[in-house]
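Why does residue order matter? Because the sequence determines the fold. Keep that principle in mind as you read this record.
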Amino acid sequence: MTMSQHAYRAAFIDLDGTLLGPKARLSTRNAACLEALTRKGIPVIIATGRPIESVRSLLGPFLKDDPVITLSGSMVHKSLYGQELASSKIPFETMHSVLEACRTLEGIENILLDEAEGFYALIDNPALDEFVGMYGKSPKMFSYDDVPMGGVLSILVHARESRRQIYTRLQDQFGESLHFTYFREYPWIELSDFSSNKGTAMELVCQHLGFSTDQVVAIGDGANDLEMIARAGLGVAMVNGDDEVKAVADRIAPHHAQDGVAEVLEELFGL
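Structure:
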C-alpha cells in the first residue's frame, strides 16, 4: 500500500546493506537525511541485526530519542540510550535442545549466543572479530556441557561449507518453535524466538508511538527485513537486496553504495 507525500509518520531503516555503504560507513548524504528527518519531527527507527552497542557507536551523533530495534527484532529499546521496551528470549529448554542437536552436526565452525549486554561463543576463532567490534567487548565462553542458564535472545550458527544442510536439519527439528533466518552471503544462520522478527518489533514500536504500520516506511535488503518490509505501509527493498525481499516490496531503492536510502526518503518526506 502506498500513501501520498508527507503522509508517512516514521521510517524504519536497516543498517548493513541499506543505510550503511561499503565498509559499513554512513555517507554524508545519508547522515544529512537522518538529521533532516529529525528536524521535521519524523521518528527514525533503526532496525538491525546488530546489538545496541554497535548502533550507538555508528549513529550516536545522529539519533538519540527514537526507539531502536536490535538483534533482528529480539530486542527493542525506547531510545538509543534508553531503557528496554521489549525483548523476546529463547526459552532455556529450547536453547539447550538446539545446542544438543548442533553437537551432532558436522560442519559447524562456531556458535554464538546473544544476550542483551554481550554474547557467548563456543570457540575462540577469527569469526568472532566482527562481533567483538560490534559489542565492544570479548565474549564469554561456553561449551556444550556448560551452557548459560538463562534464556538468550538469539543463536547464531557459523557454517560455511555445510550451511544449507545444517539450516535444513535444524529447521526440520525446531521450525515450529523458533524463527530461522538464512542470509544469502553471510555465513551465519540466525535462530530467535518464534514470534521474534523485525516486523513484529515494528508493530510494537508503532503501538508505542501511537500510529499504525500502514503509516510507516520500512527499508531493508536482507532476509531478516522480510517481515518488516511486508507489513509496512510502504515497503522498500534495496536493489542490492535479496530476491525474496524485493518480491514483497512496494518499491526498489537504488544501491546502498549510491545513497539509495536518502534518495527515497528525500522524495517521500520532501527533504
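The radius of gyration is 18 Å.
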